[in-house]
Amino acid sequence: GAGGGVGYALYLLGATRVGGAQCVAAAVGLGAALQQCDLVVTGEGCLDWRSLHAGVVPGVAAAALETATPAVAVVGTSLVGRRESQSLGLSAVYALAQTSAQARASMADPVESLAARTATVARTWSPYR
Questions:
Q1: Which among 77, 73, 79, 69 has a CA at the least distance from the CA of 56?
Q2: Among 74, 48, 52, which Cα is nearest to 62's?
């Protein structure tokens, strides 16, 4: 589209290519914020092989690694194993659905599904269990 063409033209004129997640992290001061956190939670609709190489989850996980802050991902579904997610720096991945029936149920009531899964994250990671 036009955005890609404009970006390429700017690149030819000497612009620097920066990933979206990296740009947003710098704009919101993610690195400084992580120094004050005990845990960072990020998310994605589907954690798959593409997610391992670009996007929010690897960007947040990399920033968390720099500050030694544990990072977990709450995702709709996960198509990668523990080894792959840990290679990003994620301590854990919490999927809303493991099967297609669970995915349909979570889409029918996404607020309840997210609330239940994030409650699990809070119970697991809270020092006040």
A1: 73
A2: 52
Instruction: Give the number of other CB atoms < 10 A from CB of residue 117.
Output: 19
Instruction: Give the type of residue at 94.
Output: Y
pTM over 0.90: no
CB 96 within 8 A of CB 77: yes
**43 φ, ψ to 5°?**
-155, 170
Spatial distance between the Cα atoms of 97 and 107, rounded to a whole number of angstroms: 10
Tell me the pLDDT tens digit for each residue of 29-59: 888 999 999 999 999 888 999 888 888 999 9
Q: How far is the C-alpha of 82 from the C-alpha of 37, rounded, in Å?
A: 24
Residue 121: CB atoms within 10 A of its CB come to: 16
Please give the Cα distance from 93 to 117 (Å, whole number).
Answer: 11
